[in-house]
Amino acid sequence: MLLLICGLALFLGMHSVHMVAPDWRARQVAALGLMRWKGVFSLVSLAGLVLIVMGFGAARMQPHLLYGPPAWLRHVNALFTLAAFVLVAAAYVPRNHLKASLGHPMLAGVKVWAFGHLLATGMVHDVVLFGPFLLWAVLDFRVSRRRDRVAGTVYPAGSARGDAMALVIGAVAWIAVAVWLHGMLIGVPALA
């Protein structure tokens, strides 16, 4: 479990620098240059992700039940995860209504993904993984929305084409993960 916690601290910590230390981040970008900063950011994040994967795998070998959710919540989680994939796609598809209204649909997607998994799983290692992701996404979304308001940021208006692209890309990615990748990579079938 310690490996999982260290990985979460590295990964989410690095992704929280802009929230908790924006001036320090700006100084690092100025000193290193944007591309080197992105390189450091990526390496630290990747190290955290590797530790999360290794730590979660190890923690699953010694499961401890915290709560027993009803089986139907697995199906609800599948819907939450589909919505999360569409939200994440909307972060990258230009001119869609989700990006226009939310500003940060990826963070909204992480919130939905983590919340759905907390509903459907009840092991300690699940709560240790998904709980911090949910908390981080909630805080980052609030900070990012506040920063947008202060800066007067306005996102481009959405279009039906952008909405359709976000929906199709998110749904296709969700199908690939739910049908094949989740079971293969995580060891748990997503749609069982």
TrEMBL record:
Major localization class: membrane
The keyword Thylakoid is annotated on this UniProt entry: no
Designated name of the protein: NnrU family protein
Gene Ontology cellular component list: membrane
Mode of membrane association: Multi-pass membrane protein
Membrane-traversing stretches: 41-59, 71-93, 113-139, 164-186
Record keyword Transmembrane helix present: yes
InterPro entries found in the cross-reference section: NnrU_dom (IPR009915)
Domain named NnrU: residues: 3-189
Keywords for the protein's UniProt record, in alphabetical order: Membrane, Transmembrane, Transmembrane helix
Cellular localisation: Membrane
Superkingdom field: Bacteria
